[in-house]
Amino acid sequence: MKKLFLPFIICGLISLAVAPKASAQADFGLRAGINFANVNDRPDNFDPDSRTGLMVGGYLNFKVPMSPISIQPEAIYSQKGFKIGNGTAEVDYLEIPVLAKFSFAPGPVQPHVYFGPYAGFVLNSEVSGNNLSVDIDNTQTDFGGIVGAGADLNAGVAKLNLGVRYGFGFTNMFENGDVKNGVFSVVAGISL
């Protein structure tokens, strides 16, 4: 249970530390979503199913003056992994993306697209199934990219945002493995 709360505490502390300093310069927001995680670049004889998990965290959105572009660093707790047979490989990360966001059509509904790199630091790595759970010594940092699209909805004092994103790993999920993360996410959030 402690492993589950640690990522929330880390994301909360990061958000509290940076939000007051950045509030005059950037929009601060919270985001949550559902991950549909699997693996890419896998051997032909390896065909796992996706693991459904969650993602939650915060972000800052720094607008480039006189431009539809903004830079958006995030701190996200993200559950990834895959299922195979009766077992599940669960690899949870503190993910730090830095995204370039392009917004279109200013108004009450503002569509946007974004992309950028991320670094993911392992918080939990285990294999579970058949009422057993085994921790895996996995310190492999996950480097990858994110592409996404969505819309910001102006709700007066705050903006709601909805969207989808895909994260693809450039590095192997495990030190001695030959698979990379691939995660499709449906996300929602609020910015102040």
Automatic annotation (TrEMBL):
Transmembrane segments: none annotated. It comes from the Bacteria. Keywords: Signal. Pfam families: OMP_b-brl_2 (PF13568). Residues 26-175 form the Outer membrane protein beta-barrel domain. SUPFAM superfamilies: OMPA-like (SSF56925). InterPro entries: Beta-barrel_OMP_2, OMP/PagP_B-barrel. Coiled coil: none annotated. The keyword Signal applies. The keyword Signal applies. This is Outer membrane protein beta-barrel domain-containing protein.
